[in-house]
Amino acid sequence: MNRRAPETEADPTSPDPSKNSLPAPGITMIGAGYVGLVTGTCLAKLGFDVLCLDTNANRVAALKAGRSPIYEPGLEALMERQVAEGRLRFDTFEPKGVAHADFVFLAVGTPSLPGSDQADLSQIFEATRMVAPQLRAGACLVVKSTVPAGTNSTIRAIVAERRPGLAFSVVSNPEFLREGRAVADFLRPDRIVVGCHDDAGRAGMERIYRSFVDQDVPVLFTSPENAELIKYAANAFLAMKVAFANEVSDLCEAAGGDVRDVVRGIGLDARIGPRFLEPGPGFGGSCFPKDTRAFVDIGRRLGRPQRLVEAVVAINEDRKESLSSRVADALGSCAGKTIAVLGVAFKPDTDDLREAPALRLIPALVEAGAEVRFYDPQVAAAGVAELEGALQASTLAAALEGADAAVLLTEWAEFRMLDLVSARRSMRGATFVDFRNLYARDTMGKAGFLYHPIGSAPLRDLPLLPEGIAASRRVSRAVRDGRVAMG
Ligand SMILES: NC(=O)c1ccc[n+]([C@@H]2O[C@H](COP(=O)([O-])OP(=O)(O)OC[C@H]3O[C@@H](n4cnc5c(N)ncnc54)[C@H](O)[C@@H]3O)[C@@H](O)[C@H]2O)c1
Ligand SMILES: O=c1ccn([C@@H]2O[C@H](COP(=O)(O)OP(=O)(O)O[C@H]3O[C@H](CO)[C@@H](O)[C@H](O)[C@H]3O)[C@@H](O)[C@H]2O)c(=O)[nH]1
Fold first, then answer.
1. 237-456 and 17-222 share a CATH fold
2. What is this structure's pTM?
3. Which CB contacts under 8 angstroms, 24+ apart, belong to 196-201?
4. How far apart are the C-alpha atoms of 65 and 70, rounded to whole Å?
């Protein structure tokens, strides 16, 4: 498995500490996960002196050995360079690691509480209690984690209680990077949001983000509550676009449309835009699912139910739940069939499995009596309970060999380049269910597949309205003449 992610294209942001007449401020990053590690490495690239602390000793050991514990294009090479140039260090959490920091960034997890929609804030409050005793006077605590409105005030109160009389700032600075594009997103953001009440906090953030301002990246200074709300509302809105595309996709299947053209037609309206309208197996990942649930929870608690987002959560749950019956419909039945699942990461260019649709589909297929093999270019799935009933293939070819059906879940570049004719020949059956609409229908037909994309009607099911009858006659003729394969 290639654990090393490729480098991203060169970016225009380069360290320029000469812009600061003072020495570069020291930054301690609490949490070296997807956000902490990317943020810490990128801030080091900008010329800051960064120490990343994490309580996970295995993660720190990997980092000290020069390995990124996550697959993220461009990250490992960038990390190596910053370490070699002396601006980036890693260690397990030690209170003294905070003592000299001008800025302490909190980038710990805020997952859902087990069995609940509510965000679990125990990591962030625990991290605050751990850093408070060693904070230096004038230090700025920067909250990168995604937290409900009001959390920054609680963090301020925790520190104030432990360090009466200490002058310090608390700033909300939510992160908008996407996994798989994290380095590029951090270095070239659409905007930076800073929520703070005090001048010292604002001046500190102006210093951190000066090079972005020089490149005309919009920086929105607002209250901490607004900044906290912006993060959840942004994710809720994007998740809503995806859920909408998935609903329209289902409608297209029933109405004889093709969702690819329908979303293209919608997205050409500049007020709507083309992005985040790709239908798929339902959104997953470490953010959309938990953040939409938290948004719903916050609305309920404050007596302002967020009904649109409640629907988004329910639609997405139903979609993931329906995946196995869609495969069963395509195959007739899953029992006794060998099914190759292509991709288990929740999206390409990451090895993150959190809330991935695969974790719902694969156990359901196994439960239905299928023999399941899966292949993913980057995910190391050993020990993942949901995938234990299935076999991990080491290559794409090995997953497809002798399979009755292929089911594509993640749109990895490797799958786009699949030699379809050879793939079909190596399989026992012809069924191909594509939850990402990666291939052209006619190409799949020519390769001999019974192709099941999402969001378009199987040809035989066109509606029998007058115009539908004409269309269905044209299609029948095309099928008879061998110009179109039944999918
Ligand atoms: N993953 C993303 O793409 C993304 C993007 C934007 C925002 N966010 C938000 O950022 C936050 C972090 O997300 P993540 O995906 O990086 O999480 P993660 O689970 O990958 O990383 C969190 C890290 O914090 C460490 N940690 C926990 N408590 C600690 C402590 N007291 N001291 C030191 N280290 C500690 C954990 O060991 C872990 O390595 C969350 O609030 C998330 O919602 C995530
Ligand atoms: O048109 C689309 C776009 C996305 N997705 C799915 O939506 C999920 C989330 O995708 P994406 O947003 O690209 O990945 P994340 O890394 O989860 O990033 C989101 O969540 C982060 C954590 O909060 C935010 O920082 C980012 O701005 C936000 O895009 C994945 O399952 C995708 O497959 C679709 O199905 N169709």
1. yes
2. 0.91
3. 196/169, 196/170, 196/171, 196/172, 196/221, 196/223, 196/224, 197/223, 197/224, 198/169, 200/138, 200/140, 200/167, 200/169, 201/140, 201/169, 201/170, 201/171
4. 14
287 is catalytic: yes
Q: What is the DSSP letter of 258?
A: B
Give yes or no for residue 368 CB within 6 A of ligand 2. no
Closest approach atom of ligand 2 to CA 280: 35
If you count them, how many residues does the chain have?
487
Catalytic residue among 42, 196, 287, 334: 287
Q: How far is the CA of 59 from the centre of ligand 1 (A)?
A: 12
Nearest CA to ligand 1 atom 39: 33
pLDDT tens for residues 12-23? Answer: 444 444 344 445
The bound ligand whose nearest atom lies closest to the alpha carbon of 104 is: 1
347 is in an annotated binding site: yes
Distance 278 CA to ligand 2 centre (A): 11
pLDDT tens digits along 143-163: 999 999 999 999 999 999 999
Instruction: Please name the CATH architecture into which domain 17-222 falls.
Output: 3-Layer(aba) Sandwich (3.40)
Sketch the domain layout of the chain as residue ranges. 17-222, 237-456
Tell me the two tokens of residue 455. 């969001």
Q: Hey, which of 29, 35, 56 would you mutate to test ligand 1's pocket, going by the most ligand atoms within 8 Å of its Cβ?
A: 35
Q: pLDDT tens for residues 232-286?
A: 999 999 999 999 999 999 999 999 999 999 999 999 999 999 999 999 999 999 9
CATH topology of domain 237-456: Rossmann fold (3.40.50)
